[in-house]
Amino acid sequence: MITNEYLQRVLADVQKNHPGEPEFLQAVEEIFESLQLVVPKHPEWEAAGLIERFVEPERVIMFRVPWVDDNGKVQVNRGYRVQFNSAIGPYKGGLRFHPSVNLSIVKFLGFEQILKNSLTTLPMGGGKGGSDFDPKGKSDAEVMRFCQSFITELYRHIGQFTDTPAGDIGVGAREIGFMYGQYKKIVDRFEGGVLTGKGLTYGGSLARTQATGYGICYFSDEVLHYHGKSFEGQTVVISGSGNVAQYAAEKCTELGGKVVAMSDSKGYIYDPNGINLEVLFDIKQKRRARISVYADEVAGAQYVEGCKNIWNVKCDIAMPCASQNEMDAEGAKAVIANGAFAVFEGANMPLTPEAIEAVTSAGLLYTPGKASNAGGVATSGLEMSQNSMRYSWTFEEVDAKLKGIMQSIFQECLKASIECGKPGDMMVGANVAGFLKVADAMMAQGIV
Questions:
Q1: pLDDT digit string (tens) for 314-333?
Q2: Is the pTM of this model over 0.90?
Q3: Do residues 374 and 220 touch, judged by C-beta distance below 8 A?
Q4: Nearest to residue 125, comparing CAs of 89, 159, 161, 94?
Q5: Which of 8, 81, 274, 323 is the most buried (most CB within 10 A)?
Q6: Contacts of residue 302, Cβ cutoff 8 Å, sequence gap at least 6
């Protein structure tokens, strides 16, 4: 509950000014719950209207995206870019192509991105974008035509010193490549730092593909060691089977865990012997097939319809890596009942407020996505650095920098949680540590 009068007043205004945007309001309320531990110590924030400015995007861009499908029929989608906060650096955040994308989702993602980017210690502001276009089932030519149309409008709003988009759900190397090619053609220059997640042959960074998934495990490993535990010998369930989930599974396995279940939007696979990553990567990366194919090809594996049912699988550690609000109170209670001791978020806001309450009240270890999945944007920042230097680091160099950043994020979250009287509370630590840096920058720059 939010009891601070200043925050209550700002929240009431946000609810009035942003109706019909449940995901965005959910993100604001969650962050405000943590901030009320520090707001009373800073009366100057209220005088400067700091929180009011913090919750309002600096700029919201919406546009139509017309394109022609393989049958010659004109299709029209909607594009978005929310440039939320540039106090500590140019806007930075992914582009999501998925039918569920709307203004509320893009705003919640951009809002969370402010704190996530702040936690990395790199000079990046917060932004997010995307479209309700669904690349699934589309030909490469259709995806190319859509991406070219999308970036033909967005190009005028981005730049390496203004706004640097990256990938997210539905936007991988293929989509980034098509968008970058069109951007380069329009502006007639090779501006490498304008998009991250690029291919290695034209300015991409080694380890960027693996970064979000690896980073989740690096951060979670720090949390486990702080509590005298580790991944070694633990049974793990990871929802999702996209880029984040795949590499979280790979790093988790390297650290000694056994991943027994993964999912897609239709259902989940269960392999009591541990997911065979070679088979999984072949199915998802080369064939772009449904995860159900895994059960057809691996002896002893099962496929179960209904992706939410994955939380009924018994495990020690649950890692939701699919999408927002994928674990509700019922799913959280199933995880608790099956004896899990930790829930580590891999996606952005994958637990509902009720699920978070259930998990934390039951005493499980819990990490919020804005901290644990910050490895992706951190490595995007490293890609931007390499583009600026016209230089490439080795995989090992980038991976070492990523691990160091994730360890640093844990230490900053731990320090903030202790100062707030909530030692080890990663939600409080992430929200407060990320916000304080942004608040200091905003105060220093005046009323803008």
A1: 999 999 999 999 999 999 99
A2: yes
A3: no
A4: 89
A5: 81
A6: 269, 270, 271, 295
